[in-house]
Specification:
By secondary structure, the protein is α/β, with parallel strands linked by helices. The chain folds into 2 domains: about 200 residues, Quinone Oxidoreductase, Chain A, domain 1 (Alpha-Beta Complex); about 140 residues, NAD(P)-binding Rossmann-like Domain (Rossmann fold, 3-Layer(aba) Sandwich). It is built from 13 helices and 15 strands. The strands form 3 sheets. Strands 3, 4, 5, 6, 7, 14 and 15 form a 7-stranded mixed beta sheet that branches. Strands 10-9-8-11-12-13 form a 6-stranded parallel beta sheet, with helices on both faces. Strand 9, helix 7 and strand 10 form a beta-alpha-beta unit. The protein starts with a strand and ends in a 12-residue tail after the last strand. Keywords: Metal-binding, Oxidoreductase, Zinc.
Length: about 350
């Protein structure tokens, strides 16, 4: 089969690799119908994730058809169309029993495209298939459903739920890439009074407005002044960091009100200063986290009911064989206007997000 293989910092190739097979009795093999590219994949290609060994197939998000299952798999069978979760769950360890699947100690957690071969391929082996795949209704389109593998659960759980968004809140989302946009969309479930989006890119700010942001601002003084004006000097109830750089995290801590929540979603590669000399007296709660995907069934029902605006976030579609071109487009998002790119069965022309 063909797959995108990591060959070390700055090096990858769409090339022939052996087909995956059943290795453990709880495995399933999935024929991939749709995959997407995550910002984490770009970090891997830059050499920022040293746990990924050269020779690993990248990718941790997919939709596809079950073609083979191990003898202990009970929840899915060949022919089923499934969502492959970015998080693998054994279901038996302490953390899985608590629903904290991202911290699985039984051979799960984030392993696809990280510690084992991933989903950016024609076929993928999925360990612990009963808890790590989700049956898809026929009405849910594959290119929409694949966004439930990672970005929507991550935004909802690590951003909105960890941030304790409640009705009437003022919510600030710093960073309107795919995760930030999914955060804006799912924060709307809780009817906040105002959602403020902060980003450097006007195209992404326009996308944020389409997904429910009430106001937008550039980072820095403009954002801080807007939050102060809209909250009469109080500060935001919830501030969600969706970038992963020190400046954005520190901006979040300056915009939160006393007693408020800062929910960090962004993946940080450098230390950020925690100004406890200012924060200790403000009763601020700061949370971090890796997604657990416990919310995936709920989000899937919301998507099936037409209440999750996933399709508007897909700006480009490609065939699987165009993987290297798709990476190029996604990695140059500032110039290409890419939000999410989806690859799968042979596609027609690229789809461009409508912002009006």
């Amino acid at each position: 089969m063909k797959a995108l293989v990591f060959h070390g910092s700055g090096m990858s190739a769409w090339e022939d690799v052996p087909d995956p097979g059943i290795e453990d009795s709880t495995d399933a093999v999935v024929r991939v119908e749709a995959v997407t590219i995550c910002g984490t994949d770009l970090h891997i290609l830059k050499g920022d994730v040293p746990e990924v060994s050269p020779g690993t197939v990248l990718g941790h998000e997919a939709v596809g058809e079950i073609v083979e299952v191990g003898s202990d798999v009970r929840g899915v069978r060949p022919g089923d169309r499934v969502l492959v979760s970015c998080i693998t769950a054994c279901g038996r360890c302490r953390f899985c029993r608590e629903g904290a699947y991202g911290q699985c100690r039984g051979g799960g957690g984030w392993i696809l495209g990280h510690l084992i071969n991933g989903t950016q391929a024609e076929y993928v082996r999925v360990p612990h298939a009963d808890l790590s795949t989700h049956l898809l209704p026929g009405a849910v389109d594959s290119k929409d459903a694949v966004l439930l593998a990672d970005i929507f659960p991550t935004a909802y759980e690590v951003g909105v739920l960890n941030g304790h968004v409640t009705p009437g809140d003022t919510v600030v989302v710093v960073g309107t890439g795919p995760i930030g946009l999914a955060t804006i969309a799912t924060a709307g479930f809780f009817t906040p009074e105002k959602i403020i989006a902060v980003d450097l890119d006007q195209f992404r700010l326009d996308a944020a407005k389409n997904l429910g942001a009430d106001a937008v601002a550039l980072p820095g003084d403009e954002a801080e002044q807007l939050v102060e004006d809209l909250t009469l000097g109080l500060g935001a109830d919830v501030v969600i960091e969706a970038v992963g750089v020190p400046e954005s995290f520190e901006l979040c801590t300056r915009m939160v009100r006393p007693g408020g929540h800062v929910a960090n979603v962004g993946v940080h590669g450098k230390p950020a200063t925690l100004h406890l000399e200012d924060l200790w007296i403000k009763d601020v709660t700061i949370t971090t986290g890796l997604v657990d995907t416990h919310s995936t069934p709920t989000l899937l029902r919301m998507m099936a009911a037409g209440r999750l605006p996933a399709s508007s976030m897909v700006t480009h579609t490609f065939s699987l064989g165009d993987m290297e071109q798709a990476y190029d487009v996604f990695s140059r998002a500032a110039g290409t206007g890419a939000l999410k790119v989806v690859l799968g069965e042979p596609q027609h022309d690229e789809v461009t997000l409508k912002t009006s």
